[in-house]
Amino acid sequence: MSKSYNILAERLESNDKDFRYMAASDLLSELQKGPIQLDPLMQNKLCAALLKTLQDTSSEVQSIALKALPLLLIQSEFHLLETVVQVLVSNLLHIAEDDTKSSLQRNTVVSAAKNVSRDNCLITLKSLLSLVDPNTAGDSLIGKKVIPKILSCARNNSSLEVKLDCFDILYDITSRFSFVIVQVADEFVEILSGYLFSPHNMIRKRAIHCLALFLANAPSTHLQSFMDSLLSDLGHKIQVNGQAVDKVRNSLSAIQAICKVAGSRALHPYISTITELVLKLLEDPAWTEDEELYESALQILELFLQNVPLEMESFQSSIVNVLENALKYDPNLVEQDDEEEWEQGSDSEMEEDDFTDDEDLSGKVRRVSARCIHAIFLARNFYKPSFPLPLLVSCMIQRIQERDEQVLLEILSGLMDLLKNISAYADEEKNTEPSIYAKVLSVWKDKSGFIISKLQPSFKSRSLSLKNTVLLFMKEFVVACSAWLTESDLMNISQFYIEPCFVKENNVSIQFDGIVLLECCAPLFRRYNCASHLAVFLTHLVNIGAQGYYRVTAQSLRTCKCICSLLTQQDLGIVCVSDALLQVNNFAIHRLEISDQDTEVKEAAMECLSTLCALFPELVSSSKDKSLRLILDKLQDEFVRITAIRSFSNILQSPLRTKIDDSILLEFWQQVISLVRKKDAKLRESCLESIDNSITLIPHQLDSSLLTELTGWIDASEWKRTALILEIFAKLLALREEEGFLLRWKQETYPVILNLLVSSPLQGKLKDSVVHLFQTMMCSRRCCSYFPVTNVFQDMLSLVENNPRMHSSVMKNLSSVVSIFWKSNVDVKALCPTMLNILEAPLLDEKSKSSKLFVLFILNELGYMESVKELDLSDKMEAVLYQWIRGEDEEVVGAAAAALGSLIRFVDQRGGGISQLISFVRRTETRERYVYLVAVKEAILCQIHLSSLSLLNDMDALTRSLIDCVQDADNAMQETGNREKVISTDSLGATTTSSHIISSSSSMKESIRSISSECLGILLAVSPLRLFVVIQQAMQSPNVQVRWTSLLAVKAAFSYLTKTESSVDLFIQYLQPYLPRLLELLEDPNADVDTAAISLVTTCARLCPEVLKDYIAKILNILLSHTEHRPDLMKTVDLGPFKHSVDEGIALRKAAFEALLALLPSFLSSFQDENVSERLVDALTKGLKDHQDVRGVVEKLFNYLLTNEDAFQLLLASKDGDSKLSKIVAVLSDMVSSKPKENAVAQEMEKHKELVRATMRLIYEMEKVERCRQISSFVELLSRIHNNELLQSLYEAVQNEKDIAKRD
């Protein structure tokens, strides 16, 4: 092997160029394969040969040598690498190398290296620096041998070329070896700082970038020292107006470079100071005369507005003034049209403006200011009434006459993003800040005519990019502002922007964007009854689509379809409309006839053609068969056949379907049946939709084999496909009356559908399809003889009895199907005695229980059916239900209570009803009291569903009765608890209380309160105006349970409104006057009332945060106080031989943290108060060590602070940027280091393990945040975890969990 390398070394020095090339190429190939074993002599020999080759006359040989030499040196002994690097550095920097002490071998390498050109030295050094291992060669080679030479050269060498190379190498060293430079950091910063104000532009820029890179990676003390010095010097220079412009500009460039490299977060402590200095510069005309300085200052503002917009809020008025002036900055503009004359402006306005210099730099200033305003548009924190956003919008709109193309592009881009985002922001935050959006939209409304007129000259420019941007802007403008665009505005848009795209433009991208703009404007033409204009555009679309470019053709056809769908039969009276529609029809047919058309064009043509056939069948009747035949042919094309099926289905749903030839319809049916058998889910779904649409035309074509296949495809997991199949079956049962089909369907399909009912809970479209199918079975003249009501009921009952462990939700599916029998025109009288017999039968086994539950669910369903006015045997059923309510089986008791609540309306005429149930509540014992309240709740829901007037009349009395029930229940429970105290005296004479009796009593009391609050909440949601007075009185009750219940009632009202998708606006309107009293209960003496009040605040924070904004400071103060442990809530329970401490404040603290988490997104500015943020971090540190229920919420809150960029500032708000995070890191470190008790049982060991895992999850989230990784204590914590095998395994497990969750 050494011999072969020796040959390569000799050939590298050969006189033959080909030998040198092949030798260099072979050596590079070997080095790229991996490490090679060479003795020191051979390493020196190859190295010297490659160094000489760097000066080869052949550029190809040089190129290979430049790649091979770094690879050889990395694999050689360190002293050789050290020698070559030192010589190359000295050669590059023109430093004499002392080689008197070198060995003969080393002299050979040194002499070869000295002859390398400076360019090749630079390239080789850069390659070596990217390959050298920082751990092995960082300090010994780079730190001690290279950096001192470079710094010395940078300080003393006067050659411009050498200094440029010096900074070039220094930048590469800084990017990989910044830890080495720290050793000479003071000298490094001093030397580079001296070049910040160099007169040579290239040297100054390289020094700035090198310094910024070092400060971004070095310890924060160096950045702090440098920034303090730089800002102090900058402040002194700014005091002298207009002097030292170059130095001020260079200082701004340094700040800008540091911000880009290190990030705005690294400059967080200095952002306010920098912003103040920059604004001071921008507000002083003496400084803004220099346009480069003007641009640099604005660029810093742009960086801050993009990266730290929250920090800019305190300077909002100054920023707006500065940006407004900068956007208008155009000193070379001598004459400009008055704003008031825009309505009479001509097409040549921009040509009439006179400019003194077209090469000025003011355009750069305006462009940066436009980018700054663009950043404001994208920052959500500026969307508030206190910020003058409408002024900036107006200013940007006013500048759409901008003469500089790049500036105008930036302005239009910013305005487009504003239009895209403002509607989304308005929908998302309409509850918090609705007014700002109305103001901004008002500006757009006022400026609509101005925009349409003044943007026209820009559209006439020769720049394609500008034309495209103008059309895209107009599209967003029309979409956002369509509500107030007048007919005149529409005609101007048509004349100025749309028509030129068809008449004057040949560029396909312009044509495409123009067609898209027309599609957006089409509904406006329909609004103003401009059918003739639409007809003209249809002609234009046909002409431009015929040019052949597929994107334009496809978009033309799509827009034609859009316009056709807007036209009506009345518009056909206009001759030009009929002619235009015929042209479109012929154009679409022609495109389908061409065999080599693009797929996108074919699909658009079929959709357009089907729309015409569906909406205007008489007009296109002459080409009807041809159109249908073309669409049928496309069923053979696997790329477009789904579109073809849908297009044909669209025609089948139109009036034309009755006039389709049977042969065409039969062919379509046969092809669809063949395609539905293919194993393609989307294709099968489309085919089933077509069968559903066409089955009424040829129902007898569905043969027995397809019936079997359709039955086999019934699957609850494929709900959409199954719903379509059931709809097909419903239509078939209604249309086909022959005995053979019905008998086959009953034998094959009916059992499968019954199994579907018990397979899983049905909902949505699938449930509707099942109901429709059974309605058809009951109502169809022939079907009802094959499926008698009693037989179907017995089939359902058999399913229930054969599956005694059937889930209640599945059983409710069956009951809802049975309940529709009462809607059908069939005799159901025979069912009531059967159901009564089932109810009266004793509860013997699981089978009888299932049948009983089934009947109870049916009765519950019937109570909600408005069409059912009376129910046979309802009085007897009621009596039976009262018996079952007193039963022992909880599931039957609950179902009986719900059925009784629904059944009440059938017996209400006898004087009973809800009031009777209430009377039972107040007379019965605690357990039955709860059950009767369940019945009351069901009765209320049923009456609301049916809009019962009796409920409205008795609502006040019912509300007071429910509140009295709560109070009575509390008193009764106390008496029961006193009676059931088990007193026993031991040998020492001690007395003990049965903890079972106490816990049972407390649980039942809470259940009664909960169900009462739900009833009250439903009533309150229905009639807030009448009942809020009663609820307020309940809040002032001396009874704790009544106050607790009244608060939960308001929360239950919100829950009811959201569950029923009702509007909460009216409810909130009535809530606001009573809100102060509600919030007073946050400080109630009873902890349960406090918890209920906090849960109500949480609900408001999620649904209507704006109602809390006037009280947010008080709420935050109270919530933060509730996160602390309260000694009075620590109870000691005597368990005989030992005592157990019970913390009754867990629920309170958990609720407080949940409320803080809910309030944080809407009221982030309130959390930014220094006192609040400090208390929040203190609460977090304590909460992380709290009970696991509390800790779970605290972890969510901390995760939100970490992942939300704006909220993360709460952890850095103090002057000492690391102080708050360091507190949390200290807590996490203690939790990681904690150990379970020595005598801990298995359950305690598992709890401790889960605590460590939860801590690891938080550490993993922190590690992803760059700012956290800069905290020394956190770095130490990570190091401790990685060095501990057990902790490392837990950490890796957490990482794997997160990765799997992210992939899922």
UniProtKB/TrEMBL annotation:
Pfam families: TIP120. GO terms for biological process: SCF complex assembly. This is TATA-binding protein interacting (TIP20) domain-containing protein. The keyword Repeat applies. Keywords: Repeat, Ubl conjugation pathway. It comes from Galdieria yellowstonensis. It comes from the Eukaryota. Belongs to the CAND family. Residues 335-360 have a biased composition (Acidic residues). Residues 1108-1278 form the TATA-binding protein interacting (TIP20) domain. Residues 334-360 are annotated as: Disordered.
